[in-house]
Design a protein that fits this description.
Layout: H1 4-11, H2 15-22, E1 38-40, E2 43-49, H3 57-60, E3 75-79, H4 90-93, E4 98-105, H5 109-113, E5 117-123, E6 129-134, E7 137-143, E8 149-152, H6 154-157, E9 166-173, E10 184-188, E11 200-204, E12 218-224, E13 227-238, E14 241-251, E15 256-263, E16 269-273, E17 277-283, E18 301-311, E19 314-324, E20 329-331, E21 336-338, E22 341-342, E23 345-349, H7 363-376, E24 380-382, H8 390-399, E25 402-406, H9 420-437, E26 443-450, H10 457-473, E27 479-483, E28 499-502, H11 517-532, E29 536-540, H12 559-576, E30 581-586, H13 617-633
Parallel strand pairs: 23-24, 23-30, 24-25, 25-26, 26-27, 27-28, 28-29, 29-30
Antiparallel strand pairs: 1-12, 2-3, 2-4, 4-9, 5-8, 5-12, 6-7, 6-9, 10-11, 13-14, 14-17, 15-16, 15-18, 18-19, 20-21, 21-22
Helix pairs in contact: 2-10, 9-10, 11-12, 12-13
The structure holds beta-D-glucopyranuronic acid.
The site of beta-D-glucopyranuronic acid has 10 residues, from loops.
Length: 651
């Protein structure tokens, strides 16, 4: 068992801080504390899509200068939500171009009068390019959806006389081009016998609907003017002691004092320091274990940071509390280890997609999905194909669900997408993903792309660079991308720590021939393993089933066919599971919306749950399998009572 990867990552360690700093600042999740307040701007915003031919009327008429309603008719738009499914105007459903959001806010007096307070505007995500104005003043721009961005707006709101109302205007463009992530192309249809003048379509190269808008919370929060800007934590285990390595970044003042305390789940201080960078040692530490793997899952400590500083206006203090899970991750030639024990991913791929809210963040959906994951006995998921909301990862930390964190590197299908501009943007996106998610114990691996055209030489170079950059940003986690290339052709597989493979035997190939799956799967695994000697995850497999369609013997699109296909895959997986195959992630957890196409019936129906989260037959099959694997692989085996398969696995 060669522990090769950790050694290689350690050598990259010194690069870590250099790269992390390239981003200029942290992106801590906004939390309330004795020194910090937050004000969510969720609810109804004014909304207007710019339907003008060049989509630029909003800029020509400067809609940000005055209330949006004065520019023309506006709609009520809920935030968070995707705008696409909300209206009754069909043109909004697949609108491409600039949409405008606006909201007025009244700030608490202290925020505008106390000059020791810093006021920050934070946008959870805006897909895909966003420009922000505050009271008509250009404040911020950001490229890329699915990730947060923010601006210090103190000098706009602390202007002497009270600005009783603050007007926030956000213009968002969802156009995908060869240099966005995901990439896309705009195609002008020039045959005027068929299309009106100027007619264009957005081509995408991925299989989910390009929902857009303010899909996560927008909020304002405060910090003191000298403040904790970022915290980076990595953990290790030495005999029975947990080691918490931390680094704290402070902004606003070089002279400050720090108190860093690590508290256990009973709020007892177990270690403390007073320096910005150090190690906290916890003898007899309770480790963070994935749920189902150990009788004590997902234990979280709290890293409490208290900062005090003198400013010309008087003393300030800042408090921030970071949940910390002590765990290790390592990869050998044939295993994925968590806390030194072999871990088998039995989980799902998801999408942040449901009903009329599109990809809008939604608490009931989040909790329902986690209840279903536990019902299923799933211990992991991949954030296919973009980073999910931070609240999702917080739930994973608490519940012990393991995450492969994927960036929006999906649809890299054409040779022209592997250019230098895209490469730099992709690396920057990885910086933003790592900056946001680095402290989540649940995140055990980064995925830099899904199904890129990795048989191309140019893609090999491109992915090598993105993977190396990601490893430099975070030497503590393995890095992968998800391949659908042939093992002889893939140019980027040499650079990953774990091979992740998507295959759709008896679905996209040899359709109907379920009897071929075991043979083809065995060939796939054996070829890849022989060539690379790296652990393999079956990162996608599945079949479409339209809920309620039945046929025996099974035919495609029926629930029986989906079940039979899964059964054949499972037999194939079981042949290799104890050798070097370290995981299986079904495609997909739930049905999801796609672009319209003759290949899709109101979206992709490969879910084992419907879009309304009701089970198809395959969900019961998978549930039985996952609980069986969980009961077999739990550590220590003797402690656990065999669970599941009764009506109530959690009682
Ligand atoms: C895979 C893609 C995934 C698709 C799936 C499918 O990674 O995004 O939705 O195929 O076709 O190739 O269902």
């Amino acid at each position: 068992m060669a522990l090769r990867t950790l050694v290689a990552w350690a050598a990259l360690g010194p690069l870590l801080w250099g790269c992390a700093l390239a981003l200029q600042g942290g992106m801590l999740y906004p939390q309330e504390s004795p020194s910090r307040e937050r004000k969510e701007l969720d609810g109804l915003w004014s909304f207007r899509a710019d339907f003008s031919d060049n989509r630029r009327r909003g800029f020509e008429e400067q809609w940000y200068r005055r209330p949006l309603r004065e520019s023309g008719p506006t709609l009520d738009m809920p935030v968070p939500s995707s705008f696409n499914d909300i209206g009754q105007d069909w043109r909004l459903w697949d609108f491409v171009g600039w949409v405008w959001y606006e909201r007025e806010v009244i700030l608490p007096e202290r925020w505008t009068q106390d000059l020791r307070t810093r006021v920050v505007l934070r946008i959870g995500s805006a897909h895909s390019y966003a420009i922000v104005w505050v009271n008509g003043v250009h404040t911020l721009e950001h490229e890329g959806g699915y990730l947060p961005f923010e601006a210090d707006i103190s000098n706009l709101v602390q202007v002497g006389a009270l600005p009783s109302r603050l007007r926030i205007t956000i213009a968002i463009n969802n156009t995908l081009t060869p240099t966005t992530l995901p990439p896309g192309t705009i195609q002008y249809m020039n045959d005027t016998s068929k299309y009106p003048k100027g007619y264009f379509v957005q081509n995408i190269y991925f299989d989910f609907f390009n929902y857009a808008g303010l899909q996560r919370s927008v909020l304002l929060y405060t910090t003191p003017t000298t403040y904790i800007d970022d915290i980076t934590v990595t953990t290790d285990v030495e005999q029975d002691s947990g080691l918490v390595n931390y680094q704290i970044f402070v902004k606003g003042n070089n002279l400050f004092e720090l108190e860093v305390r690590l508290l256990d789940a009973e709020n007892k201080v177990v270690a403390n320091r007073t320096v910005t960078q150090g190690q906290l040692k916890v003898p007899g530490a309770s480790l963070w274990w994935p749920y189902l793997m150990h009788e004590r899952p997902a234990y979280l400590y709290s890293l409490e940071v208290r900062l005090t500083a003198q400013t010309s206006l008087g003393p300030v203090s800042d408090f921030y509390t970071l949940p910390v899970g002590i765990r290790t991750v390592a990869v050998t030639e044939s295993q994925f280890l968590i806390n030194g024990k072999p871990f088998y991913f039995h989980g799902v791929n998801k999408h942040e997609d449901a009903d009329i809210r599109g990809k809008g963040f939604d608490w009931p959906l989040l909790v329902k999905d986690f209840n279903l994951l536990r019902w299923l006995g799933a211990n992991a998921f991949r954030t296919s194909h973009y980073p999910y909301a931070e609240e999702v990862l917080q739930m994973c930390d608490r519940h012990g669900i393991v995450v492969i964190d994927e960036c929006p590197g999906v649809g890299l299908a054409l040779p022209q997408f592997f250019n230098n501009v895209s490469l730099h943007h992709h690396m920057r996106v990885m910086e933003e993903v790592v900056r946001r998610d680095k402290n989540h114990p649940a995140v055990v691996m980064w995925s830099v792309a899904n199904e890129p055209a990795s048989h191309l030489e140019s893609a090999g170079h491109y992915l090598k660079m993105v993977i190396a950059h990601t490893k430099a940003l975070d030497p503590s986690r393995p890095v992968t991308f998800v391949s659908k290339s042939n093992y002889t052709a893939d140019k980027a597989a040499p650079y990953v720590d774990v091979i992740c493979l998507n295959s759709y035997y008896s679905w996209y190939y040899d359709f109907g021939h379920l009897e071929l799956i075991q043979r083809q799967l065995a060939t796939q695994f054996e070829n890849w393993y022989k060539k690379y000697q790296k652990p393999i995850i079956q990162s996608e497999y599945g079949a479409e089933a339209i809920a309620g369609f039945h046929q025996d013997p099974p035919l495609m699109f029926t629930e029986e066919y989906q079940k039979s296909l899964l059964e054949q895959y499972h037999l194939g997986l079981d042949q290799k599971r104890r050798k070097y195959v370290v995981g299986e992630l079904i495609w997909n957890f739930a049905d999801f919306m796609t672009e319209q196409s003759p290949l899709r019936v109101l979206g992709n129906k490969k879910g084992i749950f419907t879009r309304q989260r009701q089970p198809k037959g395959a969900a019961f099959l998978l549930r039985e399998r996952y609980w069986k694997i969980a009961n077999e692989t739990r550590y220590p085996h003797s402690v656990a009572k065999s669970q599941c398969l009764g009506n109530s696995p959690f009682t």
